[in-house]
Amino acid sequence: MIRSALAVRRRLALAAAVLALGGGLALLPASAASAAYSCDYDISASGYWYAGHYAGTTVQPSATGVSAAGIEAQCLLKYRGYNPGTIDGVFGSNSRAAALAFQKRMNSAHRAGLTEDGKVGSKTWPYLRNSYYD
């Protein structure tokens, strides 16, 4: 009986890990005790920045739950000098204000044509990642 309970717990832990690493699509509930995440910056041969949490350019970070895309966007905003607050994966008001300032800067300096809404979506991600805009 103890062995089967242990096996079930291991399977549940593995399933949770797989979901959490599923490209930023899995959301976990945010809490006041949310941990701050670290940013492991790297630049690809094509000149795109990555922070080690989400490698895509389509998932919009969530304002209501922790997501890999939220952590990634917060890390990249912080790297570029826009303060998103605590790197916690929840794209709240501080993160949205940082994203809005970034979008305004890209529109002003590079005629990016980004919607100035404080959301990091498929149009904003490439500007956030591309080292050309450093």
Automatic annotation (TrEMBL):
Signal sequence annotation: 1-35
Domain Peptidoglycan binding-like, first and last residues per copy: 72-125
One of the Pfam families matching this protein, by short name: PG_binding_1
Presence of keyword Secreted: no
Domain of life of the organism encoding this protein: Bacteria
Name of the protein this chain belongs to: Peptidoglycan binding-like domain-containing protein
Keywords per UniProt: Signal
Keyword Signal recorded: yes
SUPFAM superfamilies assigned to the protein according to its UniProt record, in alphabetical order: PGBD-like
